[in-house]
Amino acid sequence: MLNPNSRSLYTSALTPPPGMIFDEAVATTFSMDPALLLEAPVYLALMSADGQTDPDPLAVLEAIRRYSKRITVYVQRGRIQVPQIAKPNPLFGFLEDMVVEVTAPGGGVFHPKVWAIRFVSPDQSSAMYRLVVLTRNMTTDQSWDLSLQLEGLIAGRKSKLNKPLAHFFNMLPDLASGSTEAGRVEQALRFAEALHRVQWELPDGFDELAFYLPGTQGFDWEPPEANRMAVISPFCSDQVLQTLAKQSRAADALISRPESLSGLKPETLALFTHCLQLDEAAETEDGEEDNTAEHPLATGLHAKVYLFETRYYSDYTHVIMGSANATNAALNAAKNIEILVGLVGKKSKVGGIDELLGADGLGEYLVDFDSSKESVIDEVRKEAEDCVERARSRLSEAALSITCSPGSKEGLWALLLTGKIPSLDGILGASAWPITVTRDFSVNISGNDSHDRIKLGEFSASSVIGLIAFELKTHHPDVTARFVLNLPVTGIPEERDSAILQTVISNQDGFIRYLLLLLGDDTASGLEAGSGAGWAKWLARLAAGEDIPLLEELTRTYSRHPERLSEISGLVRDLSQGSQNAIVPEDFLNLWTVFESAVSESTTGPRDA
């Protein structure tokens, strides 16, 4: 049930079922690594490519451009991680609209981890949905986690059991901390409506399915009265565990992180027959630690699951999993926005607590928690951590934006961080920089309490972005926070997207190769199928030095997929804008004028005689 390999988790979630292709997706997460999000559209387009060869840069570019319009990720504001890059990467500019920062009302946090994905047949005649409920965030964290993948088709009527799910997706646009594209709002509402009517296929052995939104009236979760219970949660509170234990005749096991177990009262630990933690040797695949200031607690336990065994004519196992820790904020006070999914099946078919703790389950990876070892609390470090979290919250809540204007030299654009920087008590140093460039370009924003315009520097058009990285340093050398805010931008240069394209498509050969990507099929036999068809076929012919009959390909595309010529029209326009070198060959421009007229006529219709 637990898998420490984050990459296989996301790739398996995005891989279309046989005979289907990816259409669109909505995801939610507490924290997010932009570099990992950038990989999702690339994987969708290149999943069948040889994993031992580097993907063609132009194929990567087209994948990001194409799929970034179909994927939306909702993330807790202030919890986007700073990507680790060795050189500037303008492709992060395509993430601005994909990422919607949200806040939870009532002082909690936005904590659900869900992917809802729509797949369609190549001819668009049928669709199916996949729901992936996770306990992990969209980061490279290698913790032990749990995920559930459900698939289903649209049924004729709305399903009562899906009502909490529909409510969850309906409320996403209202949680946005800033303005959201109308298309993204419509997408969330479209998913809410569709998911309300999906009939899910249950995992083998399970007979019942339910969705819960802890703290939401009408959709709250109440633990069942049980004979036995086990809890797996990296973070715990005494009150929640005591409440759960009262619902069961026997509280068999509590599995958590040692630092969490150390913080519990002895009487709470005594309620459980076994208090367990992961064996340190099992925390990473190679047995080595990898904790950094940017990715704290990168190993260990992150799964959240509640197991109950009940009896009603037969023995049943209840599995409740999702984003909610066994803490007051998640379950008792329910300040956080969380999601849980429950499965019920006969114990004889799905197993139970004994199987979970046995040699064939997690047993070999668990050791008893030694309560005699008192944990030493570093008060100085704790104070620094509290300071940095308060400063993160204050910056996240501040009305900050980016103003862009022409720079001191032609081709450069000045970025101003606009808005009052709040007082950051306990922070010794604060800096900021666009995530399209490296930290070497960071500027100090400390001591600017009285200023509302801070110069971030002058950058090329391809580096202009609203995703701004912040770094906060405290008096403790090991306590530093880095995070990204997706700030609104005014004055974005018209040629920004063109400039991003031109960083990859830098010559005539690159233009022809990219053009063939757009002309190639994007069905299961084309863009997403790897070598031998679609764009891969043309790249192979180009690599072999063959001449490509563009006139023939343009004519074929015009007759079969005329809408694609609109994309090419935009490409020609973008690559011609502000470009001093001849990226688009003159011979092609002469040929293209014929097809551009045809595109215009097909759009507006023929003129009256």
Summarize the topology.
Elements: H1 6-14, E1 21-29, H2 34-46, H3 57-67, E2 71-76, E3 99-102, E4 114-120, E5 127-134, E6 147-154, H4 163-175, H5 182-195, E7 198-201, E8 206-212, E9 226-232, H6 238-246, E10 248-255, H7 258-262, H8 266-269, E11 272-278, E12 305-311, E13 315-322, H9 328-332, E14 340-346, H10 347-350, H11 353-357, E15 366-368, H12 379-397, E16 401-406, E17 412-418, E18 427-434, E19 443-444, E20 453-460, E21 467-474, E22 480-486, E23 489-490, H13 496-504, H14 508-519, H15 534-543, H16 550-560, H17 563-576, H18 586-604
Parallel strand pairs: 1-2, 2-3, 9-10, 10-11, 16-23
Antiparallel strand pairs: 1-4, 4-5, 5-6, 6-7, 8-14, 9-12, 11-15, 12-13, 13-14, 16-17, 17-20, 18-19, 18-21, 21-22
Describe the structure.
The structure is a single chain. This protein is 31% helix and 24% strand. The protein is an alpha+beta fold. The chain has four domains: 6-201, Endonuclease Chain A (Endonuclease, Chain A); 211-368, Endonuclease, Chain A (2-Layer Sandwich); 379-492, Immunoglobulin-like; 507-604, no CATH class. The strands form four sheets. Strands 8-14-13-12-9-10-11-15 form an eight-stranded mixed sheet. Strands 3-2-1-4-5-6-7 form a seven-stranded mixed sheet, with helices on both faces. The longest helix is centred in the middle third of the chain and has 19 residues, at 379-397. The termini are far apart. This is PLD phosphodiesterase domain-containing protein.
